[in-house]
Amino acid sequence: MPEVSEGSVVDGRYRVLERLGSGGMADVWLADDTHLQRRVALKVLHSRFSQDREFVERFRREAEAAAGLQHPNIVAVFDRGEFEGSYYIAMQYIEGRTLKQLSDAGLSPEQAARLIRQVLEAARFAHRHGIVHRDLKPQNVIVDTEGKAVVTDFGIARAGVSEITQAGEVMGTPHYLSPEQAQGMDVTAVSDLYSIGVMLYEALTGRVPFEGESAVAVAMKQVSQMPQRPSSINPRVSPSLDAVVMRALEKDPGQRFQSADAFIAALDAALGDSAQPGGGTAAFAPLPPVVASPAEKEEEPDSDEKAKKKRRRWLVVGIAVLIGALVGFALTRETTTSIPSVTGNQLNVAITLLQQDGFPIREVKHVERSTPQNIVLEQDPAASPPAEKASLDCAFLSFSCSKPAVTLTVSAGPGSAKVPSTAGLTRAQAEAKLKQSGFGIQVENVHSSGVAPGLVIHSTPSGGTAATRGSDVVLALSSGPKLAKVPVLVSSQRSVAVQQIRARGLVAAVTEETSSAPVGQVIRQSPSAGKEVEPGSTVSIVVSKGAQKVAVPDVIGRLRSEAVTMLREAGLKPTVSEQEAESSSKVGHVINQFPVAGARVEKGTEVTVVVGKAASEPSEPGKP
User: Fold this and answer.
1) Cα(262)–Cα(194) distance, integer angstroms
2) Global confidence as pTM
C-alpha cells in the first residue's frame, strides 16, 4: 500500500500539504479539499491497523457514530472513506495551541477552569449521544485565538463503549487514565470525567498528579495513590476548586461526579466562590436578657398563705404582659419580603444571589430555548419590584419567618435535531426544509457533472446527523459541469491543435481543405476561440492540405492563341516568347514549353511557351 506524502492526492479529492502530527494509530495531515476549496485535517489510519479486518470494521462503525457529533467544542468530522487499502477521516482544521502547551506556559485558576468547562461541554454532548472518548488529554484539546476549546480525536476507536482494545493492551495515555481503565475494566462516561479531572489538575498546577519511570508505574499510582491537593502546589487555587478536583479524581467511580452536568455545576459554583470569597450569610442578633424591675419591699407576710397568693398574682401579671408583647409583635411585624431579580443570569449566579439573601431553591426547570444554555428565563415568585412583595412563611407567635422557595426556569439551549436530507432538492425546497427544522443556511456553489444545475449535491452536516438547532447547514449547490474554454487554434499546426483540444477535455474533429496556407496549418475553427463549452464537446478544425495542383497541358505545335487559351483554362498563367522557326510551317506555332507537358504544378503557376517566328532575311550588300 503506497504511503501518503506531501503532494499526494487522497481519494481524488484531498491534496496533502504537510504532516501536522503522528500518533500510535494514525498520521494527521494538513490537506486542501479540492471539491469545497477549504483546508481540512486528514487523519489516515496506520497500515498495520488497515490489515486487521475486525479492527477496520469497528473503526468504520465507530467513525460513523463520531461523525454525527455536531457541537461547537467538538471537532467537526466532514468525511471518511477508503483510499488504496487504508482508511481516512477528513476533519475540521483548527489553528491554535493545545491545552497542554497552555498548561505548560501557565494559566490562572479562572482561565484553567473556563477552558476545562468547555471540555466538559463537549464530553456532555458526546456522552448524551452514547460516545465515550477514552483518551481525553490536553494534547487532544486545541484552543483557538478566541479562547474556544475544541476536543479532537473522537473519530478513531473511541465511539460508545468501544470494543477496540487488543488482548492484553490498555488503550489511552497513562497520565490521564482512570483507575478502572488502568486495570483493564469497562470504560464509561465517568472514566472520561476522571481524565478531565487530571487535565484540570494539570491546568491549575502545571503538572500531572502522578509521574513514574514507566507507563506501568504511572498506571499503578493511578490505582493506589491519592494526589496532592492542587492548592498545596499553587496557593492561588481556592478551597472550593480544590474540592472539585479531588472529587473528580476519586478512585471509586461511584464517588466521582456521575455526569458532566454535575461536574459543570460544581465547577461553576467553585468559580462563583472564588469571585466572592466568604459569600453572604444571614445573621441574627441575640435577644437582650430580660431585666426584672426591682420589686418594692414586701411587707413581711402575716402568714405563709398570704405569701403564696402574692407570688401567684405576680406570676399571672408577668404571663399576661408577655402574651401581650408577643401578640403585639405578631400583629406588627413585617410579613412580606422583596425578592431579587435573577432572570438573565447564569444559573449558578442566580442560585448564589438567592441563597445569599436566604431564599431556598424549590426547583430548577430546563426548557429548550434559543437563549444560551443555563441562562435563567423566569423565576417564581417574580422579582419585586415590579411585582408585589412575596409573603413570608410565619407561624403565629413565632420569632422568625422563613423566606419562600424560588422556582427557576432555565434555558437548556436550542437543543438538537436531525438534519433533514436535502440531496437532489432545489435550493428553495432545501432551504424550506432546513428552516422548518430550525437550522440556518449557507450555500456554496460547486461544479458537478453528475448533478443538474440548481440541485443540492450534499449538505454539511449530512442529512440524518444530529446538530444544534440554530446552527448553519452548508448546502453544496450544483452549478453544472465546469466549462472548458476553447483555445486559439488558427495558424497552429494540426498536431498541436489536437493536443490543446484534448488537454481541455474536448473532442477534436479534423477536416482538410485546399488552401494557399502551408500544409498542416489550421485555417478555421468552430466554436471560436474563447467560447466556453461543456467538457466532451466537439471542436472542429479545418487544416490546409496546400494549393490545388494541375497537369500542364501539351501545347507544342499549337497556334499561339490556341496554346494561351488552353493554359488559361487549366488555371495556369501563360507567358510567350518568340524564336526563329526552322521552317516556315512552324511560324506562329508553339515550338517549345516550360514546364514540360504533364508536369503537375499549383494553379496560377507561370508556363512559358516559345512561338516560332519567320527568320529575318539577310540584308543585301550596300543596303543598311
Assistant:
1) 13
2) 0.45
